[in-house]
Amino acid sequence: MEKKFNKATFAGGCFWCMVKPFDQWDGVESVISGYTGGHVENPRYEDVKTGNTGHYEAVQITYEPDKISYQQILDLYWPQIDPTDDQGQFQDRGPQYRTAIFYHDQEQHQLAEASKQGLQASNRFKKDIVTEVLPASAFYPAEAYHQDFYLTNKQEYDEDRAKSGRDEFIKENWD
Questions:
Q1: How far is the C-alpha of 24 from the C-alpha of 140, rounded, in Å?
Q2: Cα–Cα 20 to 30 A to 103, which of 38, 58, 76, 149?
Q3: Alpha carbon 102 to chain centroid, angstroms
């Protein structure tokens, strides 16, 4: 029997910090760092980091829905971010670091909207949930040195993550 794979795409600030949370689950085939949502074809990191291309730093997850559902992936996504910050994430500021869920079909759209509404209704946060739910568009994989950064550049990843404030926020708001 041939395996079926779907895609899920999320922006959550620096894509280095968004790979590891998804990479270790059964049913996740790959997690690719890249750029989406912008108006420039084939952007490079140097272009995107200016904040002028309209792109988000994002991850695209290829997963086997028979092993892990889109809802489970959504449930993994929210606790990685500050969904109330529309100016970036943690130490990373600018439009390229905003949060967003990019849906690939109507079912993902409905699940993402319901998930966002559920988080807003939970009153977990005093501020509104500003993470956008947007249709998926062209996804451009980032340069090779950005892929699996937490594995290939462990020391730099650990240092960057430690100074970002992400882990403190997660512990305070999600644990």
A1: 23
A2: 149
A3: 9
d(CA 161, CA 8): 23
Q: Is residue 54 assigned to a domain?
A: yes
Mean per-residue pLDDT, 136-155: 97
Range of the domain at 81: 6-173
Predicted local distance difference test score (pLDDT) of residue 36 = 98
Residues 139-143: what's their mean pLDDT? 98
The tokens of 57 are what?
């730093």
> Is 28 part of any domain?
yes
Give the total number of structural domains in the chain. Answer: 1
| Annotated catalytic residue within 8, 14, 19, 111 | 14
pLDDT tens by residue, 95-104 = 999 999 999 9
Does pLDDT of 52 surpass 90?
Answer: yes
> Does residue 17 carry a catalytic annotation?
no
What sign for the dihedral angle of Cα 114, 109, 149, 57? Answer: negative
Whole-model pTM over 0.85: yes
